[in-house]
């Protein structure tokens, strides 16, 4: 199972996280987020990333042209769409060669048939917690509802994942979980991660990955 750490922006924090060898590192390009990269993200640092750490840009209802320009500017490897983007928007972006993660906000009674029109236009899905506003909530949803998903397309598990969830996640059988997405529960402050917490979680989640001692 792979690991994605989202909401990064501080250069020193990013360099420390690279030692943990996450599979994905997420950068938020949504101005209303407290983890919005603003002018803080170091473009030159992103260009030095090893190939095994994929850079993911997170967008919310952004214009496709802006997404494409941002991908080029920051040498992003993947795009995460976290708003109300339509299947046509996904199709258009993917036709330009982008690797897409489409996020869906899960709530009781969520109808997974909504995903059918997206399946051929996205590489992965992400299941996050439904909130009052767009973006992450820092809260987890009832993972039992995932038993209703057909597992046809691999997904990122998101929404309030905490250090206490590692064992529970590794025991979730029969679900096509590609990666676990962590963010606020591993922070010192918005956008600044507790690397020791992430390192411990990563060791539980991926026991076969050789992570250097911190």
Low-confidence stretches: none
Give the tally of structural domains: 1
Shape: globular
With strands numbered from the N-terminus, the spatial order across the biggest sheet is 1-2-3-4-5-6-7-8
Helical amount among residues, as a percent range? Answer: 10-25%
Give Rg in angstroms.
16 Å
Overall mean pLDDT score?
93
Instruction: Say how many strands there are.
Output: 10
- CATH fold node name: TIM Barrel
Q: How can the largest sheet be summarized? A: 8 strands, parallel, barrel
Alpha-beta content class? alpha/beta
Fourth CATH level, the homologous superfamily: Aldolase class I
Order of helices and strands: EHEHEHEHEEEHEEEH
Distance between the termini: 21 Å
Strand content: 15-25%
The CATH architecture can be named as Alpha-Beta Barrel
In the CATH scheme, the class would be Alpha Beta
Q: How many distinct helices?
A: 6
